[in-house]
Amino acid sequence: MHFETLAIHAGQDPDPTTGAIMTPIYQTSTYVQRAPGEHQGYDYSRSDNPTRAALEALIAALEGGEYGLAFASGMAATDTILRLFKSGDHIIVGNDVYGGTYRLFERVLSRYGLQFSWLDLNNHDAVQAALRPETKLLWLETPTNPKLELADIAALVDLMPDGVMVAVDNTFASPVSQQPLRLGADIVMHSSTKYLGGHSDVVGGVLALNDQETHQQLKFLQNAVGSVPGPMDSFLVLRGVKTLHIRMERHSENALQIARFLEDHPAVRQVYYPGLESHPQHELAKRQMKYFGGMVSMLLENEEVARQMSSRTKIFALAESLGGVESLIEHPYSMTHASTADSEIAVDPALVRLSVGIEHIDDLLADLRQALA
User: Fold this and answer.
1) Of the given ranges (165-169, 192-196, 337-341), which has the lowest mean pLDDT?
2) Distance (Å, whole) CA 357 – CA 354
3) SS3 string of 143-165?
4) Which residues are designated catalytic?
5) What are the sequence ranges of the domains in the chain?
6) pTM of the full predicted structure?
7) By the 8 A CB rule, do 328 and 357 touch?
8) What per-residue confidence (pLDDT) applies to 293?
9) For residue 261, how far is the Cα from the chain centroid?
């Protein structure tokens, strides 16, 4: 079945009781049992909820996986993966990642004995050299946040010895553009707050995977730790995904035109967008992705200019997050990536990040033109 059809129908059969075409919002915390321990598949909504179950089935289908899991946020999903490991275990991470990921790994989980190495994942010799007997996970983003660097998923999977899992944060690409499980990854993570939800009205996270044993471990942690989304949150993501393929096409079309405009602008020192032929991994992007995505970053003269420009737009709203239908602009150094300041992966203070929405391209270009003037 094609992606567009799966996005609308997978996990979402009409309600058997009423025939409702939309998945009901099962706004309940508990379920009546026939006898002690005899229920109809649901006993408590932290453990399972029918609306959440529909979302989990949908995410598995979209990523080409066997299993899906939904969480209260992308960070909750990430944290649950890391709970598979123990003190002394070693994790390799790309050196351009979301600031919240760095904060969780270095400022929280390292206190419990997990060890992290931050590497350029395009240097495969360095990745191989970093492997240890204690290495249990390779964590990567592709494209990365905020510099839109790519990682060759299949090649990195081939580098990993037995016993080392590969987890991919697929938030920037979305499953429309890229399906890491099909390239050999073990787990895919999304902040469903972003493109999956698509309307800046929900916070959530999801995982997709194929291995039954790993799914059972993660399912246990999902219930035991309890970082689950409510049924309304699950419904909003279900609804958002129905238009994901259409939105991503427009996001990508607009972003490419904006990247080309910025590349020719004298006030812009560098543009980061994998759809540009000047991007060092453009060929990999063409091979690994269907669309190049809606995220564009640019390097301006200095921090002051970056702050001024990001405060001057009229249509691009100055706000954190990304992936909604509306265009957003932000200054990563002081906003989404403030936690990396003074670290080995600190973001350049002159960088500005755009989440390009689906408005008319002429209006977006005019807004950036006046902000850069």
Assistant:
1) 337-341
2) 9
3) CCCCCCCCCCHHHHHHHCCCCCE
4) 46, 98, 169, 194
5) 3-241, 244-372
6) 0.97
7) yes
8) 98
9) 26
CA distance 156 to 165: 11
Whether the Cβ atoms of residue 263 and residue 278 lie closer than 8 Å to each other = yes
If pLDDT is split at 50, 70 and 90, which confidence band does 295 have? very high
Closest C-alpha among 326, 325, 306, 300 to residue 315:
326
Which strands form 135-141's sheet, in the order they lie side by side? 67-71, 205-209, 187-191, 165-169, 135-141, 90-94, 115-119
Query: How many residues are present in the chain?
Result: 373
Average pLDDT over residues 207-219: 98
One-letter amino acid identity for 83?
Answer: R
Residue 117 and residue 137 in contact, taking contact as beta carbons nearer than 8 Å: no
Q: Letter for the amino acid at 249?
A: E
Query: pLDDT of 313-358, one tens digit each?
Result: 999 999 999 999 999 999 999 999 999 998 999 999 999 999 999 9
3-class DSSP state of 371: helix
Bridge partners, 68 (sequence order): 208
CATH number corresponding to 3-241: 3.40.640.10
Cα–Cα distance for residue pair 320/353, rounded to 1 Å: 10
Q: CB-based contacts of 330: which residues, under 8 Å, 6+ apart?
A: 310, 318, 319, 320, 336, 352, 353, 355
Tokens of 125: 């010799």
Q: Quote the pLDDT of residue 45.
A: 97
For 115-142, write each residue's pLDDT tens digit: 999 999 999 999 999 999 999 999 999 9
Nearest to 204, CA basis, from 327, 103, 341, 69: 69
Q: Give the architecture (CATH level 2) of 244-372.
A: Alpha-Beta Complex (3.90)
Mean pLDDT on 69-94:
98
Cα–Cα distance, 186 to 28 (Å, whole number)? 33
Pick from 253, 290, 245, 65: which is nearest to 168 by CA?
65
Cα–Cα distance between 53 and 102 in angstroms, integer?
30
